[in-house]
Amino acid sequence: MDIVVKGRKTEVPERFRKHVAEKLKLEKIQKLDGKVISLDVEVSKEPNPRQADRSDRVEITLRSRGPVIRAEAAASDPYAALDLAAEKLEARLRRQHDKRYSRRGARRIPAAEVADHVPGAATLNGTGLVTSQEEPEAVPTKKIGSLEVQGDGPLVVREKTHVAAPMTLDQALYEMELVGHDFYLFVDSETKEPSVVYRRHAYDYGVIHLRTDTMVTHAHSPEAGGALGG
Fold first, then answer.
1. Closest by alpha carbon to 106, among 121, 118, 94?
2. pTM above the 0.70 mark?
3. What stretch of H or E contains 35?
4. Measured between alpha carbons, how far is 223 from 154 in angstroms, rounded to an integer?
5. Which part of the chain is the Sigma 54 modulation/S30EA ribosomal protein C-terminal domain (predicted)?
């Protein structure tokens, strides 16, 4: 079997043909696929200067008695493109080879080993029942920050406490833009109340003030809190 190198709208120098023969080792390819019929390498060039970093494209086509395997790559020169395409071709050949080998060497798996080889397979307990039919175990409870969470529950990634001096709304907007966030929590210097300024649309902003109301405090449970709306 020979390697056929051809150019599409470009000349292929003899130096490149030699590089192809050195890069695509026929002995190595035939070890991975012993039924190879032909191996074609096509080189093309993109004249668009905006695609200078991908101007040279190499496509390798391997035909055998099995499925046709192709690998292509583009780079700033044909040698780099060939190297990339050759790596892709070898990876695909190895996958095809390993698939054939695993099918040929497949064996029947004893029932006791099914769960070890097949992910998600049902397993039996000592009484012959599927383990999914057993009584569910108690869901563990863990402490995350100031929350008690059951199972995987909501995750508090980070909990922070800041000491902040009261500031005006203009100062809060400035601070928000400074840190690049979409909202900013601050203490209003006029009302002395915790407030949030947040970005709405384009250059529009919104502000929310929290005010303590003893009637609301008694009417709702201690866990109740305000919601950010806009």
1. 118
2. no
3. none
4. 16
5. 154-207
